[in-house]
Amino acid sequence: MIEKLVSLAVRHRWLVLVAAALMTAASVAVTVERFRINTDVEQLIDQGVPWRQDQIAFEKAFPQHANLLAVVIDGQTPEIAEDAAARLATALGSHPFEIASVYRPDGGPFFDRHGLLLLPQAELEATTERLIGQQGLLGPLAADPSLRGVMRVLELGVKGVNSGDAKLDDLAQPLTQIDATLRRALDGQPARLSWQTLLAGGKAQVTDTRKFLLLQPILDFNALEPGRRATALVRQVAAAQRIDAAHGLTLRLTGPVAVADDEFATLADDALLNHTVVVSAIVLFLWLALRSGPLVVAVMATTFAGLVATAALGLLAVGELNPISVAFAALFVGLGIDFGIQFAVRYRADRYETGEVGSALRAAAGGIGWSVTLAAVSLLAGFFAFLPTQFRGVSELGLIAGMGMGVAYLLTLTLLPALIAVLNPRGERRAVETTWMAGIDHWIVAHRKWVLIGVGLITVAGIPLLLKLPFDSNPMHLRSPKVESIATYLDLIKDPATSPNTIDVLAPGIEAVPALSDRLLKLDTVARVISLDTFMPRDQDQKLDTIREAAGLLAPALNPARRPPPPTDADNVKAIRATAAALKTIAGGSEPGNKAADKFTATLETLVSAPAEKREAASMALTTDLKTLLDRLSGLLDPERITLDNLPSLLKARWIAGDGRARIEVYPKGDSNDDEVLRRFAGEVLTVAPHATGAPVITTASSHTILGAFVQAGLTALVAIFLILSVALRRPWDVAMTLGPLVLATLWTLMALHLLGMPLNFANIIALPLMLAVGVAFHIYYVIAWRAGVVDMLASSLTRAIFFSALTTGTAFGSLMLSSHPGTASMGKLLALSLTFTLLAAFFVVPAFLGPPPSRTEPPVRNP
Hints:
Radius of gyration: 37 Å
Mean pLDDT: 86
Oligomer: single chain
Strand order of the largest sheet: 2-3-1-4
């Protein structure tokens, strides 16, 4: 049958070429028209999985939490960061076609008025007591918020030290901070004194100088980077708002959208390098295997035609590709080209024997056709084994790759012989064999008992390594820490207050929030919870009394009855000189306050002699944030009772769903980038809230789903291949000889992973079933040849074909090691490692298992 098909293709070679050309053109047209890549990674898992249903239910209840782009703004001072965040939020709000919503979780008018009310009672009392103690400073500044007013306050401070009412060391930090600000202003650099930091004793927490915007961009999932337009807009608007290093600010993007975009951008950056390496290496190895330009052209043309045909069939079958199924191209090139190499190498061997193209092609079909057919069917079954799994990404990859194996097989038996017949390569001058390797064949057969004992001992000794093989389920470890989104993410998780590894729990209603929050807080792995109660405290009455008491004491200071007119430059010079004179009375000592006073005096003398423009710049540097502080203090000391009615709608919508359910956000204790910490955290929270969702739950649950999918697919593939081989080979021993060494190669690969310290992960685990498919094909070729009576297997043309096929496959897969994407690189490493052991098993273990070929009535076939 196979010989007839090849003979027909050779006889009607031009018709086959025209048909193939038309098919290729049609496939290109279909691929160009229908090509889509849905980069929404959440769609890679079947929606019927319970944890996916919980995730979908949460996103329906709170759609504003899905597909977020997080903007992280760090400022030199809290005021600079707050001002930049406010300006950027306002500016981005005017771009509804790129940004659907803009939300500030840590700032805005609501927090400016109710910030004190949201503090825990103990922290509120400490804050108000500190403010009351500073009213002697706040009063003069409120009355005269100018350069003159600041100088007079400092002069009063010095007098207090001289009179014994204040401590010298208390002046060291304010003088140092103000001195640094004035020096920057005198040098013409951007300068703004942080009064919030000054009043806090010179200390600022990370959350004070770091502000967040949560954006929900309009995404294009048909693009490789769905959020690219939105992220470009954010950077453009930020530049227009002068949010940059020159103004004491840095802006970084992270969140699911930025992480996904950066991941695909990383892959795209390496695409040209990978493709160049792959194509160049494949052409080189084809030349070494075939030693004929026409044969190389024929195999490459057949591979290209099959690739575009597979792409068209895949798009017609699944509608759109996903980030995993798009890898069908590498699979097709790596596996499909094997058929072409097997056929072409066998053709060379038969051409040497027959001397004529047509007869050599027919002989090649007869000699290799059955083993190629069996390998193709086994590969197809192996890939189709992924279809029933819940891992949709790999399921669709299996479908497309399986169809691709069918395409590659058909084209190998039709288009390839037609091309060879048309190109008519020159005849072979010598036999296609490696005679020196016959000695290795003989040694293996003569010592097969010891070879098998050695194989058994090595395998048994390595079994303990399998029990300790780690699996890294953290998807962030598969991404490059060099890209901005991942580097920012890793920075955020260092601080429990900003860690994105939180879990969302849904309460039936707001009345159920307190009890559920208490149960969650009792868990050992929970650090804190945030809910509607955080923004609508249940102890508001006590807090309001504390704030009103503080407001009564601070009101005279913050609202002075008399205010002097704005100072002239002469007034400022006079105040500066008076302050400098006062500072000289405490300068010259060895204490920190003495040294600060001495240094600050020199700065004030420079400021006095500087042009008026420098003093105006100094005034702006000292008073810009002072006025903002005084205004904010007035607002913070006049809050109103927070109710559902006056809670901002954007904030309320993030905590109460349309159906009345309430959200509770749960934060973990410990290192939230540690896999075990996240697993324990997710496990404990799920005992209290079985339908909770969020990154820790999804990461843990998806690892079980994905691992389960691979176990299911692997077992299904083994059973299917076993049945296929049993029907085809009809001898249990031959089936065992085909699959046994393959199992050994897989075990050795896993053992080597442990020795090399390379864990399995969601990316490289895909390599194992791929190499199962490759190994099955290689071992089938050997078993079929052995049954045909081939001796000196390693010296045969078959080994040459397998060796160079392995090189091309290894090149297609192993080039992934060049990727700067850690997940892709780890997959390339495991593929290369697995291929090495697969070849060792094929070249040395299989011959030892098989032994001498079965006795035949006719002379054995040697070195085909």
